[in-house]
Each structure stands twice: as structure tokens, then as C-alpha cells.
Automatic annotation (TrEMBL):
It comes from the Bacteria. Gene3D superfamilies: 3.40.50.450. This is DNA processing protein. Residues 77-279 form the Smf/DprA SLOG domain. SUPFAM superfamilies: MCP/YpsA-like, RuvA domain 2-like. Belongs to the DprA/Smf family. Coiled coil: none annotated. Pfam families: DNA_processg_A, HHH_5. It comes from Guptibacillus hwajinpoensis. PANTHER family: PROTEIN SMF. InterPro entries: DprA (IPR003488), DrpA_SLOG (IPR057666), RuvA_2-like (IPR010994).
Amino acid sequence: MERWIWLSSIPHIGPVTQKKLLAVFGSPERVYHASPAELQEVKGISQRAREAILASRSLEKPKRLLEHVHQKEIWLLPRDDPLYPYYAKDVPESPVLLYYKGLIQPQFPSVAIVGSRTCSNHAKFATEELSYKLASLGIPVISGLAKGVDQYAHVACLANRGRPIAFVAHGVDDCYPKEHRSLFEAIIDQGAVISQYPPGTAPKPKQFIQRNALISAWSSHVVIMEAEVKSGAMTTAHFAEKQARKVFALQNKDSQSPDGINHLLSKGVRPYVSATSFISGLE
């Protein structure tokens, strides 16, 4: 497992390059031991990346990190693990290694519910209704542990003994926002909190964008309950379209920020009408 950690943490190498290396060499072990000549033969990898691979050949830090995650009761999910959803692992934005707390039970379909941190009562009700009903069917509800729609989706899923999955933009050894600590722990008890970042990683703006890409990658359907044009929910919708997910947007006359939803609907995104009609169309 140390070499999975090593491969996922090489400077200047992201998920796309990580997967290119695995496609050629077959395993992190073989990437680790690849010669300069062998690395030179890999197409689509920059000289900077090759130099980074050669310069980072040490397992000292990965071994220390592995000890740390064991102490923190954090699990590692490499892309060759059967628990890594088949429909997520080849998405360009999906890393080759994830960290998580809780229990992962991949299932298709799975539904992401995202939206504004400050949403209307109509969006709140729609979120809670859909999440509660999905939980009753054993369908995973995926969101991002943020305030507002994310929070309502997680809480409703938990209330009906569902299996929530929360993707976070920091290490899973901590909770952000801090006031969601009890929700964070409850999700771990019934579902899973997942991150591509090792423990000790603090949240940064860029990491929330990558978090949104993973929310979409792990979902078959993405429901945008409310969103401003420039928002995390809209970023998730962008990734969902790019990743060929089925995207829905709630039509909401009470919304204080309708521009994002109107933009999505104008592009041909499916309107979300009700939990009943949405669930009847799940495949």
C-alpha cells in the first residue's frame, strides 16, 4: 500500500498521469522501479513528471503516513479495490487512491444532491424528501458536507437509515465546517466520508473543485437543488455533464438565486419535478 500512497503523492503528477503510468506498468510497484528509459517510452507524460518520479523514490513518507492512517482508523481505497466503483475509476478526475472513514458499499444507481448553502424552503423540502425516499430504497445519497442543501441531504438520508457518502476537500481526520462535527460522525457510522487528500490536509479553494468532480464521478444521477451561476453546485453540474451523468435541476419559483438553475435548464438539463417521478426514472 505504501507505493499506492507514493504514486498518489508525487509532485506535478495528477490523476490523469497516474492512470497513464498504471496503464503502461500495471502496478505502482512497477512504476516505482521503472528505469529512466522505460519512463521515456510512456506517451503523454512530460519531462517534468518523469523527473519528479525519479526524484521522489523513497518510501519513508508513505510508510509514516500508512502508520498514521492506521492509528486514525482511516481506510485506503486504491483503484484496483472492488469497492472502488467501476463507473468512477476511469473518470479523468478520479485519483488512483482515496482515503475514507466508515463503510463503502458501492451501488448503482447512486444519486448526488447538491445546492446552495443558503437555499429556499422549497429547495430544502425537495432535498429532504428525495434523500429520505432514496434512503428507503437503499440508494446511496452523495453530497459534500457543506451547509444548506448538502447538510439537508445527509441528515434526511441518516434519518431513514440510509447510506450517505460525503466527499470532503480536506483530510478525513478532521471536519469542515467545524459545526458539522456531529453530522460528520453520524455519516461515518452509517456511510462514509471520503477524500483524495491524506490526513492532515487543510481545506483550500482548489480542493473544493476537485471534491465536486468526485461527487459527480461517484454518482449516476446528479440533482442540483439550487445554485448561483458561479457556485460549487454549478461546478458539480459541469463535471456531471462532462462525465456523462444524468443531470437534473429543480424548478423553483421561490429561489433567491434562480440564475444558475435557469442556465442549466436553458442548456437542456432535465427539470426535477418530484421525488416520485425522479425515482420512477432511475435505471
